[in-house]
Design goal:
This protein is an all-alpha fold and 253 residues long. The N and C termini lie far apart (82 Å). Among the domains are: 102 residues, Endonuclease III, domain 1, CATH 1.10.340; 58 residues, Endonuclease Iii, domain 2. About 11% of the residues have low confidence.
């Protein structure tokens, strides 16, 4: 009589322990250890970074050309996934014809499409501009209000657009996180976050009050012209010594 071989039980791979949780019950964030760990910026370093930005450019300006809060709102809506230069090229003749919600509605969606067709997603943007113009007329007497909730209810207007309008048109200390600000804050370690809202929240928390009015302008310009996506200009960067990015570029020999 042959005996059947005894099969050894399979051992399941050990599972990692569950993440530690804070007193609120939320999982605590995992930190990279060893050489990969990024040291957070100190308050003194953040103060120094913004001090340098202000010394180099005391009154930074947004690069979208506009006439009034309404044309600024339209320009920012048109700038989604487009360059400021391409938007300015299209809006110069557009705003000469339509610089209020009433004149924009009178211009009409078809004519508006023709005037902005050099901008990406121009059909959707034209539809949104006409719709938000009608809504401004119907609900606010054609006025752009300095109220986030009212702005974000408009077609094609999200949190970033509302922040830009509130900051530039009405002088509020809001921080708009576009692709440049998002990249700079994550790459340098200044205010890292997994999405624009998290970056905005962290920037709001760490930016000294005296710098909040222009903070996002400095960071946008820094990301657009210095801390660029493909090959940042680290040798000429104002905050090179503060930046936590481990792969800094070097000057060409």
């Amino acid at each position: 009589m042959t005996r059947k071989p005894i099969r050894k039980p399979r051992l399941s791979p050990a599972r990692p322990p569950p993440p530690a949780r804070s007193a609120s019950g939320k999982a605590a964030p995992r930190r990279r250890s060893g050489r990969g760990m990024i040291k957070p910026w100190s308050a003194a370093e953040i103060e120094e970074a913004f001090r340098r930005f202000r010394a180099a450019n005391p009154e930074p300006k947004g690069e979208l050309e506009h006439i009034n809060p309404y044309t600024l709102l339209v320009a920012v809506v048109l700038s989604a996934q487009a360059t400021d230069a391409s938007v300015n090229k299209a809006t110069e003749p557009l705003f000469a014809l339509a610089d209020t919600p009433e004149t924009m509605v009178a211009l009409g969606e078809e004519r508006l499409q023709e005037m902005i067709k050099t901008i990406g997603l121009y059909r959707t943007k034209a539809k949104n501009v006409i719709a938000l113009s009608r809504q401004l007329i119907a609900e606010h007497g054609g006025m752009v209000l300095p109220v986030r909730e009212a702005l974000e209810k408009l077609p094609g207007v999200g949190r970033k657009t509302a922040n830009v309008v509130l900051n530039i048109a009405f002088g509020e200390e809001t921080i708009a996180v576009d692709t440049h600000v998002f990249r700079v804050c994550n790459r340098t370690g200044l205010a890292p976050g997994k999405d624009p809202l998290e970056v905005e929240t962290r920037l709001e928390a760490v930016t000294p009050p005296e710098y909040k009015r222009h903070a996002h302008h400095w960071l946008i310009l820094h990301g657009r012209y210095v801390c660029t996506a493909l090959r940042p200009h680290c040798p000429t960067c104002l905050i090179n010594d503060l930046c936590r990015w481990p792969e800094k570029t070097v000057a060409a020999t």
